[in-house]
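Session log. Operator J.P. requested a structure for one protein chain; no other inputs attached. Running the standard single-chain path with C-alpha cell output.
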Amino acid sequence: MEMERVHEFPHTHMDRRPRKRARLGWDVLPQATKAQVGMFCGQEIGNISSFASSGAPSDNSSSLCVKGVARNGSPPWREDDKDGHYIFELGDDLTPRYKIYSKMGEGTFGQVLECWDRERKEMVAVKIVRGVKKYREAAMIEIEMLQQLGKHDKGGNRCVQIRNWFDYRNHICIVFEKLGSSLYDFLRKNNYRSFPIDLVREIGWQLLECVAFMHDLRMIHTDLKPENILLVSSDYVKIPEYKGSRLQRDVCYKRVPKSSAIKVIDFGSTTYERQDQTYIVSTRHYRAPEVILGLGWSYPCDVWSVGCIIVELCTVCV
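Structure written below.
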C-alpha cells in the first residue's frame, strides 16, 4: 500500500523537479500464431499497430495448466469478470517476476496494481488492460507512444516511464515506474481545497513544458485532466488555513504537496497530427470549444485542457 510521510508546518519551500526492455510473454494463449508467439518472447516489433489491428486469441490456455496451476509458478487460471477485468488475489504472482501487493486504481481500461519487481528490486505500477479487443488495441497504441516518448525524454522527467510490457492470459500488462497520487486524488483527500498559487504556477509550467515536448514530436495527448497527472512523491506538509473574522478565527489545516514535481500519464488516446480530426476527444470538463462544436481540432485542444486544470487547482473548494 502507498505510504505517506507527513511533514508538519512550516512549509519553507517547495522542491523543484527532482530532476525497454524486451517484451516477454507468460501464459500466452495456445492459438496464437507462430509470428505472434515470437513477438511476445522478446523479438523486436516493426509495427506495433499492425498487431493491434490483427487482434489476439482469446481461448483459455488450458495446455499451460496442470491441475489448475499454471506453469512458472503462476496462480490457478481464473475466468475474467463479465467486463473482461483480470481476477486476482493479493499475494499472487503476475508472472514469476512480479508479486501483487495492492490495487492502486481501476478505470474503463482495466486495473492498476502495485507490484514488487523481483528483478529490479523495486515497487512498480502494473496496468492490466481488460481482455477486450478494443482495449487491447488501445494498449498497444499506448505502448508505442510511451516508447517514442521515452526515446526523446532522456531525463524521464516529463512523462511516466515504461519499464516493460507483456501479454498475460489475454491481458496486455504495462509496467510503469511507481509514482505518487494523481492531482485529483490529492484534491479529493484534501476536501477539494485549492493549491497555493506558487504551487499552481510550478505545476502549470511543467504541464506546458510537457505539452510543448509532445507537440514537438507531433503528438497530441487529447485527454489531459487532473486524474492523468501524477505527483512524483506522495509526501505532503500541513499548513494552517484561517476562516472567519479577525476576532473569531477558526484554524484548520490543509495538505500541500511537499514537492511540485509531476508527470503526465495515460497515452491511450494520444494521436499524431493529421488532417480533419473531428471526432470527440477529451473528458467533458476539459474539452476545447472546437471539439464541442465539431469544427476539427489539433494541438490547441491540449492547451485548453491545461488552462482548465490550472483554473481548477486555483479555485476548487468544498
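Operator note: The mean pLDDT is 79.
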